[in-house]
């Protein structure tokens, strides 16, 4: 090839080669067996040129290569590189990868659990660890040249996302930032913000998947392609498979009805149609059938996403019962050797409790579950065996899609609906892309496959929309917190802190959105001028007449609302009179009908601050047993009219609301005693509008107005209605503009005012109390600080202190109103009660300062649901007993224990040094909790 070039061209090519070989990228590329993709080269070149980079690319495309190049540059230049990840599991995985490449002496690890070689030039850490370093002014930041933020799209996370923005804003200017993100639709907007706060930033977006992905639907005995290529002369378009559309139509067609004869269709024709539909009947294949089909088609290993932990475990059992064996004898032997080696530290008596033998049987057959309820050690083993090809079918919850390196040949989605913590909701295009992105292993598979199981009522067009959409916008979840405010003021003073917060991505997005709203306001104002012309009347001022009509309508609406409010007050008063054992009739709602009052639900201490907001907004919330055997806590919305006791019943002392038999027996007694009683019907009174003087005056003024006699009055009125509607919309837009301007700074001002009132801040200084709060990170940072300040935890023993600290971190997956959580007796119970009272005072104070939890700011109520379990564990009780009492999977138990350990460490560091037992007992509590399964689980 070079022989065909002229001497000048050969010289120019040699100059280019020499220039490339002189870069740091050239030896870095030589370290890999494959050549880099164009987007990786472009990003690395920008990085070497001194620019920050944002790389947005699909899962599995190899964007971490760019992060590894930052590590290479740091080592070459004699600087430091911090590689941050969102989860400890990913930190551990990246640490092992970098140790293999650069050696153990050059790579360290810092997570909440582990500290390995923390002074190394390259340190892998969770993002929170780096945030804490920045606020503490750690000496480790000296010489820091590069920071890699892997999975930076986590800044959308409503619970933890703010940490990513804190790090990006507070990193020293000399640090070059490498941001690695999933494919997002507003990468350019995010890049513009990075350009603003970090300086010159190159944005590299790649939509290309290195391994092509094929989309399928599994229905009946067949696997259908979701798309088929359509060549229409425009280069080919992807159309939804017509077979799938036909199946959906047939399934939705009306089944045979004898009345079809009346529509001119004979019974014989209807029978033939029904038989035809039966011949092509489709069904959802079972989990075992799906794995068998994928195995026979050579599409294993596969990850099946099931949005339920119990569903994942059940899937493994169903495959075992079906006799599936995906491993030969040699693979079974390897599995057993690896499992025994990785679990050697687990005490023998704990193995049965953890379901070890059932888990091992599935692994030996090449089948496993993967979810947050599993013991971390078990999850790590599943990940290792899957990567080695010794586990070929994994049933996982969506948490597996977040970062862990477990690529598969195929991905299966059972359903396109998942529980989001509040309701069952359709998965988004971004979630679909994230889940199916696991399919196709680079360097191993020629293509990846994503299959969705056919479900009744499925819309293939909607599925095609999910699969073909790349709308995954990055939305900031940044909100100031108490800890953040104290740390900022302590370092920069109030004014500079306010300016820093206004540089957040949240404020950047809010300011950009204002531009579009302003244009809409201008457009509306032009429309208002046109409407005003249309409502002009030759008899008089129609604006004045329209105002009278509007005032009349508003007055009638207000009276109607007052009547409804009075009925609600009467209903709430009637609920307060209910007693345990009253039989009532619930007038409306999901649980309408006969019910027995188990607890009136009237808050105690109506005058204190603890229940103030509860009473104003919700009123009494009686706990009842319905005639259908359900125990539910009702709300005021279920009682639009007053309620009275129809009858009285005695509730047995042995009644247990959690026992189905107890509920069944008591519900039977309820139906027997009061089932025949008809509820009294509530009669409506005379409408207040009929006697209202203001309404009479307005009606008289309307009739006397000159415009009332206009022949075109109703036409004018329609224009006037449009005018006032558009005027109202315009005012709302103007309020939105005002509300979005300086929103973050205004929230900070409210937090600053509250902290000043509590003597955490004075002007530009943090008090001693403020310095303590600066060392407490977490959702309930202010509550923890107030407990230390009030001496609530003094003289508690280590187990009791662990129980109290658990209330700061634990959140039940589902709220259980029926039964109060069990808590340790004695000093721990008193301390927990005092914590709730302090929270009540803080809650009232937040309300006074307009700090709103719904906006992600403020202190939620402490959850006592883990106190008993961690108290038992810290007291030395065995695992079997603790898990049985807690009714909690081992993985959840370990995870909550590790979070308790983390906060105990913060408490030990923040507690007063003089005349306090908290520091000593917090450290003892850490040792008491970090034992057994908690100690030998390296990933939390």
Number of strands: 26
Going across the major beta sheet, what is the strand order?
A: 4-3-5-2-6-7-1-8
| Beta-strand content estimate | 5-15%
Biggest sheet layout: 8 strands, mixed
Query: What Rg do the Cα atoms give?
Result: 33 Å
What is the typical, i.e. mean, pLDDT?
81
The number of helical segments is 35
Helicity range of the residues? 40-55%
- Judged by helices, strands and strand pairing, the structural class is alpha/beta
Poorly predicted segments: 258-264, 605-617
Span between termini: 56 Å
Inertia-based shape = globular
Describe this structure in words.
Helix content is 49%, strand content 12%. The longest helix has 35 residues, at 542-576. It is of the alpha/beta class and 940 residues long. The protein has an 8-stranded mixed beta sheet with strand order 4-3-5-2-6-7-1-8, with helices on both faces. A 7-stranded mixed beta sheet has the order 10-9-19-16-13-15-14, with helices on both faces. β11 and β12 (237-240) form a beta hairpin. α20 runs antiparallel to α25. The protein is globular, with a radius of gyration of 33 Å. The chain contains 35 helices and 26 strands.
